[in-house]
Specification:
- By secondary structure, the chain is α+β, with helices and mostly antiparallel strands.
- It folds into two domains: about 130 residues, Ribosomal Protein S5, domain 2 (2-Layer Sandwich); about 120 residues, 2-Layer Sandwich (Alpha-Beta Plaits).
- Helix 1 crosses helix 3, helix 2 packs across helix 3 and helix 2 crosses helix 4.
- The longest helix has 23 residues.
Length: about 300
Amino acid sequence: MLFGEHAVLHGKRALVCAVTSRLTVRLGPRTDRRVCIESALGRHETSLDAPEPSIPFRFVMAALAHGLAGLPGGFDLAIDSEFSPTVGLGSSAAVTVATLAALDAHAGRTTDREALVRAAREVIRRVQGAGSGADAAASVFGGIVAYRADPMAIRRIAQAPPLTLVYSGAKTPTPEVIRRVESARAAMPAVFNAIYEAMNRVAEEATAAIEQANWTRTGALMNVAQGLMDAIGVNDAALSSIVHALRADPAVLGAKISGSGLGDCVVALGRPVRPDPALLEIPVCISPDGVVVERDA
């Protein structure tokens, strides 16, 4: 997520992007009704007729429940990821989108991209109780996406500025962060609504700046967005230290929390000329590719 975290849950605009770290789901049809799922998280075996839940594969199982109708039989599902599941990077949305697309292919259904975003958002909300669908939109469309959840609006932006992504070393689960923010918002609704309006304006101006390749302004807007994330209580000492370390580099134009906050990652615009070896950098670039469905010949 580049801009608009938390506010996007309340109908405000956000900017999100896909990165070059890929997650791949391989579906192999079976001749029986069994479903076998494997990944670095372990193995889960169940059946199409009475699917059993699995905490490690809760998004996959929710996607299966959504796409169950019309499946011709069981399957083996192998999930491979180029990034650790302990790092956010929209991994829940990515595995949900990939699983839904694989199930559509298995059932012989045509995958419509906007419909896939809506389906993935429904699955994510079913699992964690809330979700804007912004990460799902990035997973489906690729590149930078200007997004609004309600009413849904998706627009892809043809730019790919250099980014730096740094992991803070820990991650608070997104549903828990949302719960804390919504609790604080309930105590100060007018204040939080004003902050969300400011986040919306920042996202709109950032969209225009990115379309114009005005990276100095985009970086300055990232710094403003970081202040707004701090205001809603999702900044912490580790994230703040990373943000300021990145901003101290002359080649970095701006830096902010990426995602729900209280851990996970910081994203910066630009590539440091004096990389700090103490920072846990995750090499990424913006990927022009969203979900790709490949069928065996």
